[in-house]
Amino acid sequence: MDYLLLYVDDIVLTTSSDELRDWMISQLKSEFPMTDLGPVSYFLGISVIRTPSYMLLSQKKYAHEILKRVGMSECKPASTPVEANSKLSANTGPPVKDPTQYRSLAGALQYLTFTRSDIAYAVQQVCLFMHDPPEPHLGALHRVMRYIQGTIDHGLHLYPSSTMRLITYTDANWGGCPDTRRSTSGYCCFLGDNLISWLSKRQPTLSKSSAEAEYRGVANVISEACWFRDLLL
Predict the structure, then answer these.
(1) Range of 8's domain?
(2) Which residues, 6+ apart, have CB-to-CB distance to 48 below 8 Å?
(3) Low-confidence ranges of the chain (pLDDT < 50)
(4) In total, how many domains does the chain have?
(5) CA 130 from chain center: how many Å?
(6) DSSP conformation class of 118
(7) Strand order, beta sheet including 194-202
(8) Which of 165, 164, 138 is nearest to 70 (CA)?
């Protein structure tokens, strides 16, 4: 079994055996001029750190760059990415003075969620209003940045696993959006002992009950699980 990840002229190749890897590389080299850089250590802003017991995917360098860009390199850390019982609304104040900067920072945080599932919900919330962000939402963005400052070394740990069992979890609130009364659902997927996929998203339709909001969340994670099942077959 082998998987090939291609981005423009960069390739990451993973295989089930060294022999298959060497054969794949030789086949690719016979068709295209390329250089084998060895085990991946940095790809699209993600560092790959190996230890005897686990592998860490980290965007620490990228997080530092975001903090520096907005002048928060020395900010006071926050213990959580959102305040307790915080609900963002489109009707909380005047528009921000520089919506382009807001969108740039929110977009940068979206990329950071590639290895940081702990900020998925917070980033999803601030991104709901990128078309016309209110001024108070800058505080929510800065709260996420302060949390990142205090958790700059966090990343995605991958461990050797004795099982390939796919396990999923999902949850949803009911009518959590104060403007639309739509619900927000989230899920995470584990392959063996490793977290491999997660999502936080506002549901596209209204739910008449909490049970309806929950089963819409279940439908989302089942769709993701089926995709992984087909990928792994």
Answers:
(1) 2-38
(2) 39, 40, 41, 42, 55, 56, 57
(3) none
(4) 3
(5) 18
(6) G
(7) 166-172, 184-191, 194-202
(8) 138
